[in-house]
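Researcher: Good morning. I'm working through a list of sequences from a screen, and I'd like to move beyond sequence-only analysis. For each chain I'm collecting a predicted structure so we can compare shapes side by side. This is the next one on the list. No need for commentary yet; just the structure.
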Amino acid sequence: MAASAAALRELMPIPRTRLIGREAELLHARALLIDEAIPLLTLTGPGGVGKTRLALAVAGEVAGDFADGVVWIDLAPLSDPALVPAAVARALGLVPSPDRPLADQVANALRPRQTLVLLDNCEQVLTTTADLAASLVAVCPALQILATSRAPLRIRSEQMLAVDPLPLPEVGAEPSLAALSGNAAVALFSDRARSVQPSFVLTPANAPAVTAICRHLDGLPLAIELAAARWRALTPAELRDRLAARRLDLAGARDLPPRQQSLSAAIAWSHGLLAPANTLAEVSVAVGNPQPSGRTLPGQLSGAAASFRG
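Model: Good morning. Structure tokens for this chain:
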């Protein structure tokens, strides 16, 4: 027997911070899931770009449109791809029967339901997750899947929505303080800085340093949030200078997932997803290469990758 829709919704993590700069993506995702009812929507993008945070916002936005609720499954802790069906079954509240394949039992539980299944952090178990998703959407007519992954699942029913770093103030421009405050990357830094130092205000004196920090971190939300968390100990100018000199590895809250507690941890997580034959040199090449959006990962991440080479 599976858990009730109300119980399933209670399993969803509750974000305690504002979603900033993702209004367009939120509207687009909602339209794809509700207006077009696509079977599988995958939010793709580099690590730290905020795919999970956006997915949780999307799920919360559309939950009322699914009669049988939203089911969230975090695949990040899984190192064995064979455990993916068990993780989905556990989230559904299924008691597995030993005489039938677990994937079939998951499909039988979802077949009569109008449910949104959120498969979060698919990249390290990508093939197994893609196979399971393909089999589920093929036999569950009212099921829809929202996935987050650094790479697409590459199945026929999939539609991708790229999640890019936040837009930055134009280089060489001298925008007003009001215009800077409205920029998504600067607004994110300011909001998170206020969470550790309520007196923080963007001023003409600190705005250039805050802008430089956001540019240095290439608008990557995780990096900006980790930087803003250092506001209590460092002024924006000191933080800007240390980042520019690559003398600071940004560290965050202890209750973040381990891969998000520092930028070096994020790089280590990315390296762990590479095939064994790949080398650390390939990590640095990958970090410096353009992303699908045409942007590169931030210099601070390049510096973290360099630190792994000793």
